[in-house]
Write a structure and sequence with these properties.
heterodimer; A: about 70 residues; B: 7-stranded mixed beta sheet; 6 helices; about 20% strand
């Protein structure tokens, strides 16, 4: 990747809303640390999904107030 | 309560079973530095009857089933012993595991292996698709989410001074 391509790639990512500082932070980690950080994020996503599903279930089961 | 999902547990199982594979997809993106979260593990491998049996043994206690089948057929019983398959889409107690014999835009296990990187993970060594091949695969998939990931991976390549397709 030449310098022009590098700048274009970084600008395209920025335009797409990608957090380049977060990438720097990830790149400073070892492979194992990246896997562990991802595992924590995944746990949170799954917990939120479960909570969302439980909420949906509770609201659809309750009779609608009029 | 759902059992704990752990993609790195799946990776450890496969590595300990001496199953030969290359990590591809979202988890490979994470290992290359992506900030996206994925809830499945995609790998590329050669699914000979022997390899299917190795997989069955490695995953046996994680209740693997074919997630694309209506009845969630058990992977421990299907396909029958001695049958080779092209792809496997499994759901296990450790998480979703997809095993592909080919990666769109790149090729099969042998092709991926040529440029894969060896990554130390939890006391094991795993082969991971190269950054350039992963970008090619994501761009070949062409879905919006894959194209966004490809942009992120190109930014990672730019930051690391890696060559890209």
């Amino acid at each position: 990747m030449n310098p022009v391509e590098k700048i274009a790639a970084l600008e395209a990512a920025q335009r797409a809303g990608i957090d380049l500082d977060l990438l720097d932070s990830n790149l400073a980690l070892s492979y194992e640390e990246r896997a562990l950080r991802h595992e924590s994020a995944l746990e949170l996503v799954l917990a939120l999904r479960e909570a969302g599903a439980a909420y949906e279930k509770s609201t659809s089961a309750a009779p609608e107030a009029r | 309560m759902q059992p704990m999902k752990s993609l790195h547990l799946l990776l450890q199982r496969l590595a300990d079973a001496r199953f030969e594979f290359v990590v591809v997809g979202g988890y490979a993106s994470v290992l290359h530095g992506s900030a996206y979260v994925t809830d499945d593990l995609d790998i590329c491998a050669v699914l000979t009857p022997q390899n299917v049996e190795i997989l069955r043994t490695a995953l046996a206690d994680l209740k693997p089933c074919h997630r694309m089948t209506h009845q969630k057929l058990s992977f421990l019983e299907h396909p029958p012993v001695g049958h080779a398959v092209n792809n496997l889409y499994l759901e296990t107690e450790g998480g979703v595991l997809d095993i592909l014999s080919n990666v769109l835009g790149v090729g099969d296990y042998q092709r991926l292996r040529q440029s894969a990187i060896e990554v130390p993970l939890f006391g094991r060594k795993c082969l991971v698709i190269s950054l350039a091949d992963l970008i090619a695969a994501k761009e070949a998939m062409g879905r919006e989410k894959d194209l966004l990931t490809a942009k992120e991976l190109r930014a990672i390549a730019a930051k690391r001074g890696k060559s890209t397709p």
